[in-house]
Design goal:
Elements (H helix, E strand, L loop, with lengths): L9 H28 L3 E3 L6 E4 L6 H5 L3 H6 L124 E6 L3 E3 L17 E3 L6 H14 L5 E4 L2 H6 L5 E7 L11 E2 L4 H10 L18 E4 L7 H15 L13 H6 L6 E2 L10 E2 L2 E3 L14 E3 H9 L2
């Protein structure tokens, strides 16, 4: 038997050699591609940050340029890097976190808002009852939507009886002008006034001034523009507060302060005064806080008692023709300002002048009574929380000089003198 080697088959030998070369080349290319396509990526387990390549000869930038670093930094590929993603392993590009616990809704296994009202239980006053407004009328920490305690609000003003300063009278603003704990709407601290000789009507209902203006002398005129003065826009409760406050200021003097036209009409015309609180805007003096005729009663009494002296007067000063005026809109419908302005203008009618002048060197005296704890009623401004009658610089007006050593005006003594007549 003749032995033959592969060399005896040149064609087969050639084929084997070529196949071997091809297989060798393929194996080498596979190793290169393996190193390129399947590198061991080093990733920081704490931050998921790319740290480098273990196997392969390629620069890490090769992979960075192809997004490998970014892929590892954004595990769920939602466009939010792992370090900022509130669900790094769950796709949630909107990053919604309803309960604000730092874990996105897409992967939050704890429901911190079971009632779905958008308020996390940690701050929700009704954990299992939707109440996005969190209303808690009785301020007990339990929202009205789930509060089992009976909320009693007898007057239905939105304020529970437990903290309502007028539980049987509706007063949603809880105004308490004298700070005695009893709301103005039901405060009887200032009792009804008796009927004195002097009567002042506080007229909030509108008034038609019909007296004519005949200017034959300085004392022969109607002080204000004739015509109709529209009603005040103050509410009944606000009117009550204002009237009670004016009564408080005049509590130590014999003058009846009322809103009853019948009481006014029954009084002596020379001892009655009308104060019109109105909203008219087209008259002389309209828009001022208030306006009054200085010394009106003393002029009227002098004319009445000395007819010969004033024989030539065709239309002498008469109280009913010269009411005091207060414009509610000019005082911004503020109850306190309206009340003190009424008292102030009444003071002028009762012969009180400004407590110092608005432009003189004693403005401190005018605006806040100097070191006193209140603002003078016959002064101005609102620098202190209380008003009252004052003893201090006075006896002058805006147009008259007033100096630091000027006359002293004792409001109480002057008022007592007037009311004794």
């Amino acid at each position: 038997m003749i032995k033959k080697s592969i060399k005896d088959y040149p064609q087969l030998f050639t084929i084997i050699v070529l196949v071997s070369i091809i297989l060798y080349a393929c194996n080498k290319n596979y190793e290169v591609l393996k190193n390129r396509l399947q590198p061991d990526i080093i990733v920081d387990p704490a931050s998921n940050e790319f740290r480098g390549v273990v196997r392969g000869q390629l620069d890490p930038e090769y992979f960075i340029s192809r997004g490998v670093k970014e892929i590892n930094r954004d595990r769920d590929r939602d466009g939010i890097l792992n370090s900022s993603d509130n669900c790094p392993s769950v796709f949630n590009p909107d990053q919604v976190d309803t309960d604000k616990d730092g874990i996105g809704d897409a992967c939050d296994t704890v429901n911190d808002d079971p009632d779905g009202d958008g308020i996390a239980n940690v701050v929700d006053n009704c954990d299992n009852t939707p109440n996005p407004d969190q209303k808690d009328t009785d301020l007990d920490g339990i929202g009205d939507a789930c509060d089992t305690n009976t909320i009693i609000d007898t007057d239905r003003d939105g304020v529970p009886d437990s903290r309502d300063n007028c539980p049987t009278v509706s007063n949603p603003t809880q105004a308490d002008f004298n700070n005695n704990g009893i709301g103005d709407a039901c405060d009887a601290a200032i009792p009804p006034m008796p009927i004195y000789k002097f009567v002042t009507l506080l007229d909030f209902d509108g008034f038609d001034l019909t007296c004519s203006n005949v200017a034959t002398s300085s004392l022969n005129y109607t002080f204000s523009t004739p015509g109709y003065y529209s009603p005040s826009k103050m509410t009944p409760i606000e009117i009550k507060n204002i009237v009670d406050t004016v009564r408080y200021y005049y509590r130590n003097f014999p003058v009846t302060i009322t809103t009853d036209e019948n009481i006014f009409n029954a009084a002596n015309p020379y001892y009655r005064l009308r104060v019109v609180i109105n909203g008219r805007t087209d008259c002389s003096g309209c828009g001022n806080g208030g306006l009054a005729l200085q010394d009106m009663f003393e002029w009227a009494w002098d004319i009445r008692d000395n007819p010969t002296k004033y024989a030539n007067l065709q239309n002498p000063i008469y109280p009913d023709c010269n009411p005091a005026w207060v414009w509610d809109y000019a005082l911004l419908y503020d109850q306190r300002k309206i009340a003190v302005t009424i008292a102030h203008e009444m003071g002028h009618m009762f012969s009180l002048r400004h407590q110092a002048g608005a432009t003189c060197t004693t403005c401190n005296e005018y605006s806040n009574g100097g070191s006193s704890p209140y603002t003078p009623i016959m002064g101005g401004g609102n620098l202190k929380p209380y008003y009252d009658w004052h003893v201090g610089l006075g006896g002058c007006d805006y147009s008259l000089p007033c100096f630091s050593d000027g006359p002293i005006q004792n409001d109480t003594l002057i008022l007592r003198k007037i009311f004794s007549k």
